[in-house]
User: Which sequence fits this backbone?
């Protein structure tokens, strides 16, 4: 075990833990935001730079600070390390800059985006962004395309986090989409008109931090904040069958994985559960799910609902 | 006349071929190193020589080698970085084209010192004919038993393979290069773990520049102390400087580190002064990534001393009035050149070459390029200048690899030293549509000192 | 708007000759067992050159099958590196360096001259299908500026007269074989 201090709060974690994970163990406001890192997927992180922190002291053995801000998701802690996140102006300034960079080519089409209300980029901009943009140049534009019957790709909104590529690499046996070209022309695509189609492809929707990959079966059906998130499960021979059903009245509008407070799914689910089981009779309803994020759904209006067996 | 450690034999006819090279004393360093020295001896000798990486960062080579994880459970690799793509730099091409066996010699000794049995030379794909030349030289080395199994009867075996790149500046960054060598996109990865622990195929790997490796052979022959006696302070030995732009004699020159910049630019032995009798306006001294300096600051330090071609002297004055030696690519600008257009040009280059994986560089280089394009094409606003400085500052230091810094420095330094040219462009739209129309920019009398 | 390429298969069969296949196997052997993907860049160079100067989906799929990797891994790489063309080009792909050192040494005027001489804009192909004109970033030959490459062969110290000469020579050579030793497959 090693001791690390983040924003003056100390915690002991296992050797090899990343700074971000240590911060999540502490919890609260000192946890750096993460747009590309996804703890459930290997090799993610390091790319979006929103989780940059300052290492004021590298370790008790070598107390020199690290020369640059580091990506907390991919920098392992060392014993005696002292990290500054929200206590460092340098970090907050850098984060503000990253938000600006992520937004300059983002279409800001939130009013017509299905991700609105549960979008990591919205939350990030709300917490760390500035009011006005200084960007006056043209934005990247791509047509929205269907990659298969279940998934819609809005490349305009993509922030190039690579999560969906890792989902396809690590959950499915054949990846057919990937990252093409480079620099600011980089795009996610299937290159040829391929269909992303296998049992676990739908998880790219949950992993996508923005509205670049959305659920076609839920497209324009409702705003997420009008729906009540209900934990449900079913016997499934492909996945765990544990999902969140998003309901309006007694109707299931969509199914997602169960997302934790960091926006990551607890367990990945299969496409059958996600797209093909929209009848209430398909599911055992467990009860309302608490959404602990900044977004509008975190109002938890349904918190007071009772579980069926408590009635 | 400085000593020519690397290029002394360049003028010998046929020096590219093994028999001629061998006849001139070639491969003696391999015999000495493999038969008379241990790997530790070699590393000690290189450390003693004070040799610093010639790719741009100037990190001490002996120290880099000493970091290698020497656990025998995994193979070790030496990868030679010949992905020379830094604008203004063409020294490695010169070396590989003219002295391919000098590089192979260095590779054999270095691989032996590092315990590597396989070595890859990553050559940028555009150098197709050099790939042919290198493979020919490698074949000759195999035929003469300097490569392959049991070299010189020592029991040491080494294979060298040439691997072509395919047009990506970023693959000159060592972790991107290793990714590219694995057949992937050239995306740099976060360090640590450093390649010395987890490099090619997750095995301990050393990545060195062509010139660095080529210097190892001569160091073994002359001894580390002798090599360290050349140069100045911590910048030991000789260095290849590629000089281009508006000078009389563009080309690659081997200089003893410590040569004054003024002598380098004006003496007949080297650049031969500014072409067509024009005046010197600015110099980018270490490849396009380093800050540009106006004539007076490149020739002398802020303290009024002569600026020398050493890692330290170049940096004197910090970012305000200094620059870096980098890869030693001198780009010399005469009074006709437009610094705004040049800054746009470089920024366009970095936008084109950004790998795109991390946000500040992907979005920031594109943003700066678009703003600079506007200024250069008569649609700039006064506020754009400060915007550029701000964006450059926000990219710098926030990216995975140094490309972000490399893109930010030219912009920040050009505005720092040539702000009036940016302002002039904004006040006089349409002034400049080609690089050599810089003379149309009226220079305020006190702002710039031509030389 | 940025090109959003949704390429279609062209419906042609591709395969290397046995001679080239042998070379491909030799190249793969240079990398450790199981790391055959490392051979992707050299093999794509060969594939592009042998199939008329550009990579279509069939060729990339074929290379993927040779290396036992997913086609997507080839597309990702082919789109990343600028030396791979994804669209058909003229017999001669002229790429003029436009980066700083070339630009201050007259590279911009060379490009202007080529546009005028070939009567096309940068990015276009002449109507006879002989020349495609493009720009490229630094070719690492700044001391010999201005520089251009024609199908990966360098032409340096360019001037208008030299361009005239080069274009004439290329036109005459258009139907001939490539000079011996100049192909990628012969470089390894």
Assistant:
């Amino acid at each position: 075990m090693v001791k690390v201090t983040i924003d003056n709060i100390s915690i002991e974690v296992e050797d090899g833990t990343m700074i971000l994970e240590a911060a999540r163990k502490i919890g609260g406001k000192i946890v750096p935001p993460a747009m590309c890192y996804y703890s459930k997927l290997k090799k993610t992180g390091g790319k979006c730079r929103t989780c940059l922190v300052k290492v004021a002291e590298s370790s008790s053995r070598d107390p020199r600070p690290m020369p640059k801000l580091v990506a907390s998701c991919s920098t392992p802690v060392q014993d005696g390390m002292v990290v500054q996140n929200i206590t460092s102006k340098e970090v907050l300034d850098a984060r503000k800059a990253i938000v600006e960079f992520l937004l300059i080519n983002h279409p800001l089409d939130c009013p017509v985006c299905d991700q609105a209300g549960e979008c990591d980029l919205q939350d990030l901009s709300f917490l760390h962004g500035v009011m006005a943009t200084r960007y006056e140049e043209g934005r990247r534009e791509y047509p929205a395309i269907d990659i298969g019957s279940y998934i819609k790709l809005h490349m305009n909104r993509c922030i190039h986090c690579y999560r969906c590529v890792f989902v396809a690499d690590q959950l499915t046996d054949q990846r057919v989409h990937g990252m093409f070209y480079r620099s600011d022309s980089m795009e996610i695509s299937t290159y040829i008109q391929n269909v992303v189609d296998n049992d676990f492809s739908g998880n790219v929707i949950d992993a996508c931090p923005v509205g670049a990959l959305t659920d076609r079966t839920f497209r324009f059906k409702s705003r997420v904040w009008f729906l009540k998130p209900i934990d449900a499960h079913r016997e499934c021979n492909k996945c765990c069958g544990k999902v969140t059903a998003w309901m309006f009245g007694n109707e299931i509008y969509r199914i997602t994985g169960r997302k934790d407070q960091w926006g990551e799914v607890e367990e990945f689910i299969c496409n059958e559960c996600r797209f093909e089981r929209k009848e209430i009779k398909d599911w055992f309803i467990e009860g309302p799910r608490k959404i602990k994020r900044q977004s509008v759904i975190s109002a938890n209006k349904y918190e007071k609902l009772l579980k069926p067996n408590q009635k | 006349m400085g000593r020519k450690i690397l290029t002394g034999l360049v003028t010998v006819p046929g020096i590219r071929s093994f028999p001629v090279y061998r006849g001139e004393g070639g491969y003696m360093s391999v015999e000495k190193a493999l038969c008379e020295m241990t790997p530790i001896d070699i590393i000690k000798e290189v450390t003693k020589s004070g040799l610093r990486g010639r790719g741009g960062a100037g990190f001490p080579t002996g120290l880099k080698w000493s970091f290698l994880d020497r656990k025998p459970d995994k193979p070790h690799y030496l990868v030679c970085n010949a992905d020379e793509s830094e604008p203004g730099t063409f020294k490695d091409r010169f070396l590989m084209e003219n002295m391919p066996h000098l590089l192979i010699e260095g590779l054999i000794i270095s691989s032996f010192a590092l315990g590597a049995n396989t070595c890859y030379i990553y050559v940028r794909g555009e150098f197709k004919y050099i790939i042919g030349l290198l493979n020919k030289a490698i074949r000759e080395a195999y035929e003469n038993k300097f490569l392959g199994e049991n070299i010189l009867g020592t029991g040491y075996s080494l294979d060298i393979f040439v691997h072509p790149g395919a047009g990506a500046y970023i693959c000159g960054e060592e972790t991107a290069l290793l990714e590219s060598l694995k057949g992937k996109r050239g995306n740099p990865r976060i360090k640590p773990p450093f390649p010395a622990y987890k490099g090619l195929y997750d095995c301990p790997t050393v990545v060195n520049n062509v010139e660095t490796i080529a210097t190892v052979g001569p160091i073994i022959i002359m001894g580390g102390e002798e090599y360290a006696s050349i140069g100045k302070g911590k910048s030991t030995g000789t260095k290849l400087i590629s000089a281009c732009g508006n000078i009389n004699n563009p080309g690659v020159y081997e200089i003893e580190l410590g040569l004054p910049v003024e002598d380098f630019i004006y003496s007949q032995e080297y650049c031969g002064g500014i072409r067509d009798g024009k005046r010197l306006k600015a110099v980018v001294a270490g490849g396009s990534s380093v800050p540009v300096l106006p004539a007076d600051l490149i020739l002398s330090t802020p303290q009024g001393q002569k600026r020398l071609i050493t890692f330290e002297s170049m940096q004197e004055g910090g970012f305000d009035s200094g620059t870096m030696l980098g890869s030693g690519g001198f780009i010399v600008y005469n009074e006709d050149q437009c610094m705004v257009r040049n800054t746009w040009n470089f920024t366009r280059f970095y936008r084109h070459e950004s790998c795109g994986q991390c946000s500040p560089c992907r979005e920031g280089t594109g943003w700066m390029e678009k703003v600079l394009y506007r200024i250069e094409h008569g649609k700039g606003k006064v506020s754009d200048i400060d915007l550029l400085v701000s964006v450059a500052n926000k990219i710098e230091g926030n990216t995975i690899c140094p490309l972000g810094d490399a893109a930010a420095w030219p912009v920040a330094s050009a505005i720092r030293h040539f702000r009036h040219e940016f302002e002039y462009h904004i006040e006089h739209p349409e002034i400049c549509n080609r690089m050599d129309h810089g003379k149309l920019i009226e220079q305020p009398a006190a702002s710039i000192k031509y030389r | 708007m940025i090109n959003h390429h949704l390429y279609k298969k062209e419906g042609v069969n591709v395969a290397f000759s046995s001679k080239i296949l042998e070379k491909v196997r030799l190249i793969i052997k240079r990398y450790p067992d199981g790391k055959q993907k490392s051979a992707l860049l050299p093999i794509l160079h060969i594939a592009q050159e042998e199939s008329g100067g550009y990579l279509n989906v069939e060729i990339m799929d074929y290379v993927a099958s040779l290396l036992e990797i997913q086609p997507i891994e080839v597309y990702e790489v082919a789109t990343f590196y600028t030396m791979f063309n994804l669209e058909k080009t003229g017999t001669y792909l002229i790429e003029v360096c436009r980066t700083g050192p070339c630009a201050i040494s007259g590279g911009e005027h060379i490009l202007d001259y080529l546009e005028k001489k070939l009567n096309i804009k940068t990015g276009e192909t002449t109507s006879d299908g002989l020349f495609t004109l493009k720009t490229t970033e630094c070719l690492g030959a700044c001391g010999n500026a201005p520089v251009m490459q024609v199908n990966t062969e360098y032409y340096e110290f360019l001037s208008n007269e030299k361009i005239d000469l080069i274009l004439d020579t290329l036109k005459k050579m258009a139907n001939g074989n490539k000079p011996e030793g100049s192909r990628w497959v012969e470089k390894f």
Observations:
- Chain C touches chain A through 16 residues (CB under 8 Å).
